Prior knowledge:
By secondary structure, this protein is an all-alpha fold. It has one domain (4-147): Ferritin, core subunit, four-helix bundle (Ferritin, Up-down Bundle), CATH 1.20.1260. Helices cover 78% and strands 0% of the residues. The protein has five helices and no strands. It has helices spanning 4-33, 37-63, 83-110, 114-144, 148-158. The mean pLDDT is 96. It binds MU-OXO-diiron (FEO). MU-OXO-diiron is lined by residues 17, 20, 50, 53, 94, 97, 130.
Amino acid sequence: MIPKTMEQALNKQVNREFYSAYLYLSMSSYFETTNLKGFAKWMRIQAKEEQSHALKIYDYLIARGGRVNLLDIEAPKAKWSSAGKVFEEVYAHEQKVTAMINGLVDLAVREKDHASFEMLQWFIKEQVEEEKNASEILAEITSIGDIPGPLFFLDHKLEKRE
Ligand code: FEO
């Protein structure tokens, strides 16, 4: 049986992962309005990935005999001023998520909950990837300087994400 504190904390994380999906879907819709279709596609795939993160924890809670409590999902922001501003936010957001995952690992250690500790290792690795992707795209946009021509070039590159 999963410790109650862990069950509660993982339910919060399910909510945060769904919030991430909402946030990235909102960013995707913003990119649709700026005609950056590749960026929009990249974000939509990212939103789907966040849903899968939420469901990974959801399935784990069930496997451990825990209760799933789906909480209200906060409405995300809907407007940004540039692609650079979006990716600054993505990078900052992913760093926050990393801190949340680290907090969950700390809790698993305190609770001597080895199964949760082991499950969370997947997220530890995933966050390395998430931060890397966001910071690399942000660095590319920064070097371009949000100039339409080169930005469309990056847009084509991002459109290749499957
Ligand atoms: Fe679920 Fe982007 O981390």
